[in-house]
Amino acid sequence: MRDALLAIGTRKGLFLARSSGGGPFEVEPVRFSTIGVHAVTIDTRGPVPRILAGIEYGHFGPSVMWSDDLGETWQEARQAPIAFPEETGASLTRVWQLQPSPTEPDVVWAGVEPGALFRSEDGGVTFSLVEGLWNHPHRSQWQPGGGGLCLHTVLPHPNDPKSMAIAVSTGGFYRSTDGGVSWEAANRGIRAPFFPEGSQYPEFGQCVHKVDRHPSRPERFFLQHHFGVYRSDDAGGTWTSIGDALPSDFGFPLAVHPDRPDTLYVFPLRADEDRTPVDHRSRVYRSDDAGGTWQALTAGLPEEPVHAAVLRDAMHASGAGVFFGTRDGEVYGSRNDGDSWFPVARHLPDVLVVRGALL
């Protein structure tokens, strides 16, 4: 069995955990201690894996750093890796997403706050603004959600470099078929109950929390909304609710199984009451039929009451397994598709992002 690497970004630093040959994960000492790590990716496209981390220096601002030796040493571009052109009048607040392109070897995408997309052509060292999205007529009407005006999801097409999708809170879901030159809002069927009666299905303005898809079925998306879990079978053209059987259709993360395109995972929360797990029980829900039915997965998870949520990027499914981290610093993993769970780390700072990969 191949070795696995787990990257855990927290409010106070980055933790890396390694597993050799299917053995237990060993958590290494913290990197970037006291610095928030809101985005991380493990880029395995080249001969040497590259870890990219979107960090927040506090009053020195956000940046992107990379490591080509599995976190032993880190580098940063001499100038700010992500910066808005002066004429935009905007400044970078946070890097929310780092996503390598599956079709262009040196391309990495970055989703940032305030609501913008950047593209790198040198493996994530430097980035340039995608002006087609920035100049979209809807952008000036987007309103920040509770976490800010964040572009938190970037989904390049697995085969077509011209096709991609993004999600913004609270702008909604958008797609492009020309490499980001133009963008179309694609939110038909997603209900926004926070709008007045009679206008709850707007063209844009939905509070999308997370979107994912499987590379073997690129036309199918799964989406966790502020109110609802949805599926689209036509690349976002229309959306159908699939969350009615869940104990709550409110939540933040959503992850699709790496090998089974009809299998997805969510972590339901108590809506806007206090955003804690439903019944104060730690339960991941899995659907094996594209949202038709759901099963609660609890084996190995805490039996005592829990009160910590799982954030939008703190759940990930890859060849290394399924993993999630909580706001009270607990990280759990599964190597059998969620049928049972084991603790990876405990007593970490607030977990913001989890990413796993086979090396």
Structure, briefly:
By secondary structure, the protein is mainly β.
Describe what this molecule looks like in 3D:
It is a single chain. This protein has 359 residues and is mainly β. Helices cover 1% and strands 37% of the residues. The protein contains 1 helix and 28 strands. The chain has one helix spanning 131-134, and strands at residues 4-10, 13-19, 26-27, 36-43, 50-56, 62-67, 75-76, 94-100, 108-113, 116-120, 128-129, 150-156, 164-169, 172-176, 184-185, 208-212, 221-225, 228-232, 240-241, 254-256, 264-266, 284-287, 295-297, 315-318, 321-325, 331-334, 342-345, 351-358. A hairpin with a 5-residue loop joins β25 (321-325) and β26. This is Exo-alpha-sialidase. InterPro entries: WD40/YVTN_repeat-like_dom_sf (IPR015943), Xyloglucanase_GH74 (IPR052025). It comes from Streptosporangium fragile.
Features:
mainly beta, 4-stranded antiparallel beta sheet, Exo-alpha-sialidase, 1 helix, WD40/YVTN_repeat-like_dom_sf, Xyloglucanase_GH74, 359 residues, globular
DSSP summary: helix tally? 1
Radius of gyration: 19 Å
Instruction: Quote the distance from N terminus to C terminus.
Output: 10 Å
Indicate the overall shape: globular
Strand pairing plus helix content: what structural class?
mainly beta
Please tell me the overall pLDDT: 96
Give the SSE order as H and E letters. EEEEEEEEEEEHEEEEEEEEEEEEEEEEE
| Strand order, sheet with most strands | 3-2-1-28
| Main sheet properties | 4 strands, antiparallel
